[in-house]
Amino acid sequence: MSDKLKHIAFIMDGNGRWAAKRGLPRSAGHKKGAEVLQEIVKAAADMEIPCLTFYAFSTENWHRDKAEVDYLMNLLRQYLSSELKEVKERGARIRFIGEREMLASDIVEQMNKIEKETASNEKFTLCIALSYGSRAEIVHAAKNVAADVASGKMRLSDINEQSFASNLYTSGIPDPDLVIRTSGEQRISNYLLWQIAYSEFYFTKTLWPDFSPKELKEIMDDFNTRERRYGKL
Ligand code: FPP
Fold first, then answer.
1. 58 CA to middle of ligand 1, Å?
2. Span 95-107, pLDDT tens digits
């Protein structure tokens, strides 16, 4: 039996293929994907999973067609302004990880406001990766640590895994126990590279817009049969 599950990180993949299969534009897949995101957050909160992270937009996603990026940004605006309301009311602490400088200022303002409003909520943590890339996050942390050493705030001997991790965007969030990627792709795509050192992985062929609370429950049942040794015997 595994340890109690504290954190699931999702890679929501397959929106485009879901739409193509139906002869719909890619945007229809993202729209349905955003609905499924809402549904999964609620189901996971009901299952009392303490922390969830969703990869909503990667740094690489900026290279998609302008129309698709604009569509995703507008979906995000909608999500931040209305749909997160219910999650807030359920007592979620909401965090955003990623490169905020790349996002439009109105979006960043909304993100800051939501983080501030929910900072003392304790029921569960919802973390959304936006304009996120893990290598960039690690470089950002390394720069912070280097600056602290250069200014004398920190000694070289104070650098360890814990102090380094406290400079990552995910500071204060437990490492994921389980990473779920939908759509059949078996890659990590620059997601939480530091944080997944001991995570379990689950790859499902289901496209994200078809993912359901029922499948989440089945994956958790599978996770509960896994024996985690963290490198020990
Ligand atoms: C991958 O599908 C998904 C994304 C790039 C974005 C994930 C976004 C959502 C689930 C919508 C919710 C998002 C926000 C911003 C609230 P894909 O487009 O790579 O699909 P494909 O691999 O089949 O083309």
1. 10
2. 999 999 999 999 9
